[in-house]
Write a structure and sequence with these properties.
alpha/beta, Rossmann fold, UDP-N-acetylmuramoyl-L-alanine:D-glutamate ligase, Protein-Tyrosine Phosphatase, Chain A, 3 domains, 6-stranded parallel beta sheet, 17 helices, globular
Length: 446
């Protein structure tokens, strides 16, 4: 084992950022990807003169590493990781690695749904308040690369369960835990507790001066917090005021109570629509007040935030039908929030790579709000097995154009067409962004 050799597995945003940071910190660096690298990442590695390989792993180079930084998309079950662990080589995430080299205050957000919106909103609030703040993790530029090349006082990090799996000594100064609903169960042996355990790693190493912000109405979250008894100061938020809630709604306003002060704001002034976004705004508001953002600045930021692409994004209204891109809804709970916010009859486009989904959660909303279902995927068998007979009109589509054309035919004036797939996108698209981009293109051609 060569302590000075840092091996990076995966050559995307996370891996290339980790390689740059490792090189800057004096390690010999070798990056290996089982597939082809993107052109921009390949050029970056050449510019930095970092050794790399693509389209396969050379075991003798990898298994002499002192440590391996693994990209979040690589499961522990792949053979090269199993061999490394058997040899006693530590395998960590980019988040763990980069966290060693920054003294910035770390605001970390996780949850099955809403984490990108909440992360982006917190970043918007802090940046608008004039703080020197970076945005990273599961969103934006690699955290490791920013630690290598920038000098921020604060980082707002969106952390997925896959990123949290590889953290050990990393500590969040402020942890935000939005919710936990079944997701990625294919990666967690179809065992919900394994997924819950990964999410709860966000409170790992928190101390008495740190903050834990969480949704008190989520039974899984509250049960785990009672069980784990974290040392951090707790700031629960919920829909209604109770003995301990730091943020809540009442009489058409949201209230945030920290440090013996109460901030309030009319719900109708929030930039984001829907009850789930009220929760995201409550969580973000607690962070803002803990960071001493003024009431006036917070009010402005909560009312002028532009939202996140591919998340309930209004694309266009065509012949009286509103088309909405929610391609980021890669699990059932995300689709539930989207359907709940619909005010009109809806044609719903579902489908893709099923991650062990249980569609029961959206059944009532589909029955009450959905005029027609369109299944967009290579294998729609599971969707048919669940939904056949529950909606009058169901169509299959093998491409986005086919799906949008069918939706256009089925929707009536005043309806909405909602792309909220419940599934990953890898059967027909590069990723959820590609899926959403294609939806936009097809809608604009109607």
């Amino acid at each position: 084992m060569d302590k000075k050799l840092m091996v990076i597995l995966g050559g995307g945003e996370s891996g290339v950022g980790s390689a740059i940071l490792a090189q800057k910190k004096g390690f010999r660096v070798f990056l290996s990807d089982s597939g082809a690298l993107g052109d921009a990442y390949r050029e970056t590695l050449k510019t930095y003169r970092i050794d790399f390989e693509e389209n396969g792993h050379t075991e003798e180079n990898i298994l002499t590493a002192g440590e391996i930084v693994k990209s979040p998309g690589i499961p522990d079950s792949v053979p090269i990781i199993q061999k490394a662990l058997a040899k006693g080589i530590p395998v960590i995430s980019e988040i763990e690695f980069a966290g060693r080299y920054t003294n910035a205050k770390l605001i970390c957000i996780t949850g099955s749904n809403g984490k990108t919106t909440t992360t982006s909103l917190i970043y918007h609030i802090l940046q608008s308040a004039g703080l020197k703040v970076g945005l990273g993790g599961n969103i934006g530029k690699s955290f490791a690369r920013q630690v290598a090349e920038e000098s921020y006082d604060y980082y707002v990090l969106e952390l997925s369960s896959f990123q949290l799996d590889g953290v050990y000594d990393f500590k969040a100064d402020i942890a935000v835990l939005l919710n936990i609903t079944p997701d990625h169960l294919d990666r967690y042996d179809h065992n919900l507790q394994h997924y819950v355990d990964a999410k709860m790693r966000i409170i790992r190493n928190q101390e008495t001066e740190d903050a834990l912000i969480y949704w008190v109405d989520d039974p899984l979250v509250t049960k785990e917090i009672e069980k784990l008894k974290p040392a951090a100061i707790r700031y629960p938020f919920g829909e209604k005021k109770s003995d301990h809630t730091a943020a809540y709604t009442e009489n058409g306003k949201l209230y945030i109570q920290t440090k013996n002060k109460i901030f309030n704001m009319e719900l109708e002034l929030l930039a984001l629509e829907g009850m789930h976004n009220v929760y995201n705004s409550l969580a973000s508001g607690i962070v803002a007040k803990l960071m001493d953002v003024s009431d006036e600045q917070l009010r402005t930021s909560l009312s002028d935030f532009k939202g996140v692409p591919h998340r309930l994004e209004k694309v266009a209204s065509v012949r009286g039908v509103q088309y909405i891109n929610d391609s980021k809804a890669t699990n059932v709970n995300s689709c539930w929030y989207a359907l709940q916010s619909m005010r009109t009859k809806t044609v719903l486009i579902l489908g893709g790579v099923d991650k062990g989904n249980d569609y029961t959660e959206i059944e009532d909303l589909v029955r009450s709000k959905v005029r027609a279902l369109i299944f967009l995927g290579k294998d729609n068998g599971k969707l048919h097995a669940f939904f056949d007979g529950k909606v009058n009109e169901i169509r299959d589509a093998g491409s986005m154009k086919e799906a949008v054309d069918a939706a256009c035919e089925l929707a009536q004036k005043g309806d909405a067409v909602l792309l909220s797939p419940c599934c990953a996108s890898f059967d027909l698209f590069k990723n959820y962004e590609d899926r959403g981009d294609r939806f936009r293109e097809c809608v604009r051609r109607l």
